[in-house]
Design brief:
Layout lengths: L23 H12 L10 E7 L6 E11 L6 E5 L5 H8 L4 E4 L2 E3 L1 E5 L2 H14 L1 H9 L9 H8 L3 E7 L1
Antiparallel strand pairs: 1-2, 1-4, 2-3, 3-7, 4-5, 6-7
Helix pairs in contact: 3-4, 3-5
Amino acid sequence: MSNSKTSVQNSPVKKDEKAPSFMVPIFKLPILLYQLRLGWLLGNRFIQLTHIGRRSGKVRKTILAVLQFDPQTQEILAVSAWKGSDWYYNIQASPALQVESGVVRYVPVQRTLSPEEITKAFLEYRKQHPLFSRMICRIPGWKWDSTYEEFLELAHTLHGIAFKPK
């Protein structure tokens, strides 16, 4: 991975880069739906990931956008939009405790996605959800109309995880 600016991002990704602070309340709002047992209203487009904080040891809950959901296997693909996402580092230190999406809830096994898998998932998501993907891409400054090669270059800077039931 080079340190130069890529064509798929407005700025280079830094290891400690996080979501913009003004977005944090928006990202946390769906947690309320899950706490009220109304997470199913979000369908399978989002998940609530329950994990242990690697420094605090406390149980944490994070809402993630789902790139792919397979209703037969219940496998969920999710990608960290920022290289420094705490949830990703937390589940590397201690595997996720639970995944909840729509009416599906399970203790997962997890595996890291390759850049090629992330790229394929981005392209499929863009095809299935063109309007929503245009909005989501703007948050971290990605280009919606990126080519395969540009998405692959971006995917090398991201963390992707596949979750499925144990």
